Structures are given as C-alpha cells and as structure tokens.
Amino acid sequence: MERLGTGIGWRPEIADAVERMPGIDWVEAVAENVCPGHLPESLERLRERGVTVVPHGVSLGLGGADRPDEGRLAALAERVEALGSPLVTEHIAFVRAGGALTASPHLEAGHLLPVPRTRDALDVLCENVRIAQESLPVPLAVENIAALISWPGEEMTEGQFLYELADRTGVRLLIDVANLHTNHVNRGEDPAKALAELPLEAIAYVHVAGGFERDGVWHDSHAHPVPRPVLDILTDLASRVSPPGVLLERDENFPAPSELEGELAAIRRALEAGAVERVKAEVRAAGSAAALRRAGTGAVDALHGEARAGIGAAELRPGTGAGRLGETLDVASGPLARDDAGRPGGEAGATRGACGLPRPGDGGAARQRLGLAQAALLSALVAGTPVPEGFDRVRVGVQGRALAAKRADVVAKVAPELPVILGSGYRPAFLSYARTQPMTGGYRRDALDFAEHLLHAGRPQNAGARRELRAWWLERSGPAPRSARPAHRLVRATRRVLLRR
C-alpha cells in the first residue's frame, strides 16, 4: 500500500489555508463536490506540487440492499481519473432504501446510516464491494462509520465484521478512530477490542476528527477540535501498526489555520507515541525469542505446544492474534491477497463465510430481507412511521431529529434564498416539514419540495414573502429558467401550447 503521510480534508472554505500549511503530504476531497471538467484551482495547484488528492465518496450506499448504481460508479471513476488518485474511498453504510426491491416508496437518508452486522448484510455488502471494485480503476477502501443507534440481533462485532469483509473481498480499510470513539460512547463498544480484531495490514489510511457530547450521546460533528480520547485511540492503533496515512477531517465551523496546524501536530505526536510503544513491543518480543533460543529446543517445543492449544481454544477467531495478520497469515498468498489493482486474489474471490468457509449463495433473498429491514428503519427516521421492534426508540428519535436538522442545514446551503425569504421562520418551518415529508431525491429537489409544500399550505402568511417564494419556486421547478421579461415567458408558454396540438 502506498504511504500517504499526513493530510487534511480539502474543503473550499479552507482551500487557501491548506495550500499554505507546512507538512501536508496529501489531501482528501469529497468526490460528489468535485466536477471532473472544472477542478478547483486550489486542487490543481496542489497536484502540480506533487500533493496526492484522494476522492472520498459519500453517496454510493455500498451497505444498502440494492446493487451500486452504475451511474454513480462511473462518476466516481471519472473523478479518480481527473485527480490522478492512487485509490478511492467510500463508506460501509446505507443512505437510501425502499423502491422496487421492497415495493415501497424510495427514501433518501441524506446521511450515512449503519449496516446491521449480520450474515445477510455482510453477504450483500461483499457483493456490492466486488461490483464497485470491478468498476473503479484504482483500489477501493471503505470506512467504518459512526452510529447513534444499534441494530437488534447483530451477529458480529465491528472488528469481526470488517475482518470478514476484507477477507472475502480484499478491499482496503479506511479506519476512522473518531468513529470508534463515537461507537464506544453511543453503543458501549471497546475501541481496543475492535483494533485487536482488525486485519491491520488491510488499512489504507486513518481518519481523525472531532465531535461533542450532549445528553450522553456523542455527535461526530467534524466541526469541533479532536478530543484526547480520539488521539488515544490513534496512539493505540499506531502501537500495533504504522498506518500508511492519517488525515484530519473538518467540515464546518472552521478555526484559524494555526488551530488546524496545532491539531495536525497533536496527531503527529499521537502517532509518534504509538510508534515508540510498537518498537518497545518488538524489542520485548525479540528478547523473548532470544531467551527461548538460549533455553534450548525443548522449551521452544513446549511453548509451541501451549500456543497451539491456546489457538485451538480460541477457534482461530479474529481478535486472538488475527489483528496482526502478517504475524499469523501469509498475506501474499492467503485470503487477504490482492492483485495490483487491489482486487482479491487467491481464495478471496470466492464467496466465503466465517473463517473462510464457503457459504451457499442466496443473494436475492438476502437483499430482500436486508432491504425490508432498512426501509422500515429509514421510514421511522424520516417519515414518522412506527419504530421497528428491537430498536431503542429514544435513540431512533435522536437520530431522526439529527437527520432533519442536517437536511435543514444543507438545504439552506444549496438554496440560500430560502432562509432569506422566510427569515427566522425558515428553520422551524423546515423541521416541521421534515417530520412527515421524507427526502426522495437530492437536496436541491428537497428544497423545491419544501417550497411547494409551503405554498400549497398558503404559507408564509406574509403576502410579499409568499409571492417571493412562489417566484423562486417557479424559476427553478421547470425544465428551463424563467425569463425575467414577461413577454418572453408568454412566447415560451404559447409555443408549448402549440406544440401540444
């Protein structure tokens, strides 16, 4: 795996600051925000200086029940080519549900939602990852996500789920240590155990980000400084393996460049502390091996016998030494072997189950079961339907409100005229709308649907604001922008009538 070094998430708001920051080896850009034919000048200048740019996708929904959309895959591949990237990344998440597979309305989450850690979900995810790998020109890495809610009836820990995913597909892993912290607070999961179960040799790079805690729930905001517990998890990871790259994420509430540089310095210190612990462990291991050699072969044979007994008791499960796969498996020829494009080689191309055993394929049935479960959860989150059995209703409520708040924030960015027209009434009106009106397309479609919803209800009450909102909606809801000149609008309307005759 190519070593990337230390990087930062490139965002237009901090583009100039990123260009001037010392010690930036690479950057990551949100793939959907990059137009291949019109790359931002800042990214072009960084590339000319030899700074690697990695596109980071957020909309594929590899963890969803449907197969990845060919158009989205082609668009992601186009951005890889335009940026000359050595790899591309996405998320282990679902972002939409419903549709033909479940004979239910299509719903968009507008956010990354967790995949249940079940055999059905793993089988579907593995097939979706393979489809993406075949469509992309460079290796794919997938990221563990943060979650507010837990699925009932999960069959694996996060580490085991990721281990099997990498084992069966050869996909690289993007490990977000901030998300491990989030899941520790929200779901009681042990970050150290997750790291011990991971196939560390599959790590492509690491994300580090900040968040905040409110009412016992950790929100992975990417808008706050990186807290000490996240840096501690990074040190723990670095004590086990030297990650090829580490990147600081910040998506909003951007501080002064000096503060970002301070966070990058803290990340480097955390990596150095982990590296020191790793070297100490290697020295201790070397000393133990030398002592065994001096003790004679009899003691060595006895120790090997004890080790074999211990492995047998652990049933060769991830987490009993498998976290350091290079120490227990021949990665060059075993189940995590990859070709030069990052696709699985050896046995990894076959459908495999626990511990590499083949599983009978029932892809269609697994997709339908997963699709029904995801549609029920997403409908509860965004359409106000009953919470599916087994979920924490309070947490589902928290997640639903967070999704609505994010929708309000993003719609305000893609349609900045709406908060101006509606004034202080924009946010409460949108949150009320979002409680019962799920998003079925992108955020721009959502903005138009929201405006139409208000107009049908005779709102806003102020006649001037209502006229302005109607004009805004008419300007953007048709196939072509309305002319500012009434005579031209009349000519176009007459032409449409004549063409229909």
UniProtKB/TrEMBL annotation:
PANTHER family: UPF0276 PROTEIN HI_1600. Residues 334-362 are annotated as: Disordered. Residues 373-455 form the SCO6045-like C-terminal domain. It comes from the Bacteria. NCBIfam families: PRK05409.1 (NF003818). It comes from Streptomyces violaceus. InterPro entries: MbnB/TglH/ChrH (IPR007801), SCO6045-like_C (IPR058711), Xyl_isomerase-like_sf (IPR036237). This is DUF692 domain-containing protein.
